[in-house]
Amino acid sequence: MDPEEFRRVGHEVVDWIADYRARVEGFPVRSRVEPGWVRERLAGLAEEGEDFAGLLGDLERVVLPGTTHWQHPGFYGYFPSNASLPSVLGDLLSSGLGVQGMLWSTSPAATEVEQHLLDELVGAMDLPRSFLGGGVIQDTASSAALLAVLAALHRSSGGKWRQSGVDGSETVYVSAQTHSSVERAARIAGLGEQAVRSVPVDPVTQAMDVGALAARLRSDLDAGRRPVLVCASVGTTGTGAVDPVREVAELCARHGAWLHVDAAWAGPAALCPEFRPLFDGVERADSLTVNAHKWMLTAFDLSLFWTAHPDVLVDALAILPEYLRNTATESGAVVDYRDWQVPLGRRFRALKLWSVLRWYGLSGVRAHLRRHVALAELLESWVRADGGWELVAPRTLSLVVLAHRGGDEVTRAAMERVNASGGAFVTHTTVNGRFAVRVAIGAEATEERHVRALWEALRD
Amino acid sequence: MDPEEFRRVGHEVVDWIADYRARVEGFPVRSRVEPGWVRERLAGLAEEGEDFAGLLGDLERVVLPGTTHWQHPGFYGYFPSNASLPSVLGDLLSSGLGVQGMLWSTSPAATEVEQHLLDELVGAMDLPRSFLGGGVIQDTASSAALLAVLAALHRSSGGKWRQSGVDGSETVYVSAQTHSSVERAARIAGLGEQAVRSVPVDPVTQAMDVGALAARLRSDLDAGRRPVLVCASVGTTGTGAVDPVREVAELCARHGAWLHVDAAWAGPAALCPEFRPLFDGVERADSLTVNAHKWMLTAFDLSLFWTAHPDVLVDALAILPEYLRNTATESGAVVDYRDWQVPLGRRFRALKLWSVLRWYGLSGVRAHLRRHVALAELLESWVRADGGWELVAPRTLSLVVLAHRGGDEVTRAAMERVNASGGAFVTHTTVNGRFAVRVAIGAEATEERHVRALWEALRD
């Protein structure tokens, strides 16, 4: 495909996406196909090439019916993942440039734009100055959690981990509501599930019980174990619970454990002064992760990760074969982001974040966040006034978790009816053993009329 | 940005990329900026949003001078990473759809198109039938190597790894020329560098010395260690060496070790019957990785990974919190790719691979590969006829590794002069302690005149 063909076909593809976004509300949110339906309709690989029209035709014929529409205004499942249209174009520019930023020298702008944006966000989100120079983009919060565990293991071993590996006494602390990626990171790091302590949560707030954490740390220390990392969440996946970061930090400092703060979903709210108190204590964190691809308008995948100890992270992960040696690296004047992640190669992901921050401006991103919180407050008020439904955990920001007083089967049946209707899509969790619907308001296109329609559908 | 704004700005962005690709040859391949040059020219984050023109202006003013142009026809560094224009459009469609395919149910087409393409490639590349149903897309070969190590650890422990972690006796075998990502994967997995055996290579072919591997396995077993994984390469990064996969497989089978085959760069050549013999023995591999983003025209990041034991991989990595439970998963009739990777979320990456395979057809991809091999043969013939330069390792496919008979300083000076000229970019390696220039022919736009110009520049 030469540049002129690309220009012609590229315009068609842009038009297809514009049309798709304009009509997305007309699709059922959740795909209705059965397992295997898509595959049965796909042709084998052909010897000869073909024009792009065939692919666009298959998108209509096969892919769209097999798609759960994450950009639909009725998407309230998991956490919505906005692929705002400016971020789509930023990512297109990244593919178009086609650079690979594993080293500073393999494309200086890819590294320096990223450093710049991550440092600027430290200011805009009122994050600690210890994070300046310690920011890097990851694909997901799961990868960020793994990095935190690896850096923590290295530091905790006094630098022996890199050579000797783990010794089996290392221990990681999460709450019963912490995202499963932290337990999985411990498993990947060779610690096994035996190394993970699930600390109980407060039955009302669902936040980590600091007293229980302290007790567990003490008994582990008495048993000769080594506390390596504690993960505190600002906004858990289940209910949006906020762990007491400041008190957890105090315990971490006492026992030499790394404090990783998971604010994957709620993190962007730190841009708004009125929500910033939720992040109290984050200035004592050793690392923090915030997904721009959830609530910050940036197309998946772009997770922000900051650490106050980039030197530890780099020392843990660095490896320098001959074919990657270069003058810039040896000068010590540059950052090579390959040492800050599990993969070696990397896209110029910062472009899609840059596009978002420039198109919307900080005020536009704040307005986006505030609009969703206001919609969640509205839904909360309707639930509170209702005789049938009730909140089962305190609302945090734009996440409302509710259940029917009539019991789990009523709640589940309501959820399944809503999801089958096609107009909205919600997912669930359990709170103190009770089945509950999560309404995560966060799609860019969601307006009051959509939330009202969801509420009416749940109540019916 | 609403769909109509997107249509207008999107056309401008497509045009910008078309123009960039049309003029890419006019840029110096390697960026000439000094560390910090880019950052000094970037503005802070603004409160108010702005039109897209500002970003496009900064691309011209700051990003392009700070870019090493991987799509330049004179790019011979590392391994070229083609972002062919059909794959750019496939990736644009992925961002535009904005789906997240962590579960089958979160977008069935994202999973089923991927399964379909990976199975089809098993046929097209003449890979073992044991890989059918065992294919998955990763971001990079580094992540694929980590998965192989994790699955190997789990299997080797009889399934106890997941609960108990590593015990320190696990041992991983690479050659002195194996990509550093395997050693790094062992480190990430908690084994430490102490667990990695670097087996010597044949001084002429640079391929793993199987006798040395056998001896090392025996002495480790005698010392109570547990061989967990051997990585054999088809096309090493340094010189393109091909390890004796079949003989390595025999040793793996005898000792219960997982055989991971790293064909990150050379893998696509399996599509051509005349190159398929390089992959002899791959039918006995437990896993294989091939980067579509190197020599298969697909924009970074897309690494193909196959395993004959997806059940082991999934058992190693699966974790199921309440909020991810769903009917389709519980039916057992679907694959949830989140259990096949380190991250939880995932893009619909298969779209960019699908675009490539449909636009070029298998015959087009084969022609692309053969053209580069023919250019490398030509360069090889010029080197052989030259009095000053010589090959320092046998040519494999499109990689030519050469050095000047006048010594390392002459070779290095020639490389630095070429790279400073802007017309071409090459990187280096060492072979038996000798400094050597790697000419990795593989950019889509590279023609004979470019290779000739490089050769003349080296000789001058």
Automatic annotation (TrEMBL), chains A, B:
The modification N6-(pyridoxal phosphate)lysine is found at residue 294. One of its GO terms (molecular function) is pyridoxal phosphate binding. InterPro entries: Aromatic_deC (IPR010977), PyrdxlP-dep_de-COase (IPR002129), PyrdxlP-dep_Trfase (IPR015424), PyrdxlP-dep_Trfase_major (IPR015421), PyrdxlP-dep_Trfase_small (IPR015422). Its cofactor is pyridoxal 5'-phosphate. Signal peptide: none annotated. Keywords: Aminotransferase, Decarboxylase, Lyase, Pyridoxal phosphate, Transferase. Gene3D superfamilies: Aspartate Aminotransferase, domain 1 (3.90.1150.10), dopa decarboxylase, N-terminal domain (1.20.1340.10), Type I PLP-dependent aspartate aminotransferase-like (Major domain) (3.40.640.10). The keyword DNA-binding does not apply. One of its GO terms (biological process) is carboxylic acid metabolic process. The keyword Membrane does not apply. GO terms for cellular component: cytoplasm. It comes from the Bacteria. Belongs to the group II decarboxylase family. This is Aminotransferase class V-fold PLP-dependent enzyme. It comes from Saccharothrix syringae (Nocardiopsis syringae).
